[in-house]
Every structure is written in C-alpha cells, then in structure tokens.
Amino acid sequence: LEKSGKFDNAMKVYKERRSLENSDFTFEYDAVLIGGGSGGLACAKVLAESGKNVALFDYVVPSPMGTKWGLGGTCVNVGCIPKKLMHQAAIHAENIEKSKFYGFSHEGKITHSWNEMRENINNYIKSLNWGYTVDLKNKKVKYINALAKITKKHEITYIDSNQNENKLTAKYIILATGERPDYP
C-alpha cells in the first residue's frame, strides 16, 4: 500500500474525516441524498428515523423521447412495475380464453383498450409517487425536485422551480442515482 500511494490517500481521507468530526462547522443537513429510487428512498428514511436531518434530491432529465417521472426511480416509473402490470393484463387475456375449458362462457367478443390500460397503470404509478412524497414528508425528509450538482466538498448547488440558484451544505452526500440504459 505504501509504495502505491494508496496508503497516503487513505490517511488523507482519514485525517480529513477526523478533522471534520472534531470541527465546529455546522452543516444545514446531516446527509443529502441524490437519487429518489429505491436505494435513495430507503437510505433517506433510515437516516431520518435515526434522528438525522436529511434532504433528498430527485430529478429526471427527460429522455430523448421526453420521458420523465416522479419519485421511485426507474423500476417504479418505467421499468419493473409497469412491465409487470402489462404482463398481468396479458395473463388475464389468456385466462379469459382458457376459462371456456372450465365451463365459463362469455357472450360476444372480449375487447381490450390499450389506452385505458395505460391510463390505469400511469395513475397507479402516480399514486406510488405521491405515497413516496408523503412518506418523506412524514419522516421530515426535505424533498427537492431539482438537478443537484456537487460544487464543493460538502456543498450542493441546484436550480429551483423559479430558476434561482441555491446552495446547501451537508456533512455527508450520498449518491444513489442509478442508471439509464444506453442507446445503441
């Protein structure tokens, strides 16, 4: 370790942390999380429940197709949850067809409305987003829907909905941003 320089880097980080712990500097937040997916939400809640002053940033840069969403991350908004609900719709269609074998009859043609299914799924996802927002508020986590940038050690800068630049400080900054798929 000493020859590679990693030891010196590790000691530097250790000393900085020790000096921070022993300093009188006051931060606005104990921890700020960047990312409102499952990891960021869980971490924010645990920290808040342990008495920490916590803020959570979540902002989705619209995709090339203009897609953006609320709290919950990729899985809740455009991944696992909508996919599983659409899969469930396909299972129901198959079960309706198979029900004849079990003695069920249905008169006329059974139809499916893609738009109605999509609207219902989107409303369900919005209810999850709202639930996460309420849960953060109940746990006294400050939710900020803005793109956060780490501008200095312990400092985050963001633009609010009124296009004003704001800064805040935190003892710890935790990244829980997840990923977006690459486009070929």
UniProtKB/TrEMBL annotation:
Any one GO BP annotation for this protein: glutathione metabolic process
Record's keyword terms, sorted: Disulfide bond, FAD, Flavoprotein, Oxidoreductase, Redox-active center
Domain FAD/NAD(P)-binding: from-to ranges: 29-183
Pfam families: Pyr_redox_2
KW DNA repair (keyword) present: no
Signal peptide: none
Cofactor(s) named in the record: FAD
Lineage: superkingdom: Eukaryota
Similarity annotation: Belongs to the class-I pyridine nucleotide-disulfide oxidoreductase family.
Name of the molecule in the record: Thioredoxin reductase 2, mitochondrial (Trinotate prediction)
Organism: Henneguya salminicola (Myxosporean)
Organism classification: Eukaryota, Metazoa, Cnidaria, Myxozoa, Myxosporea
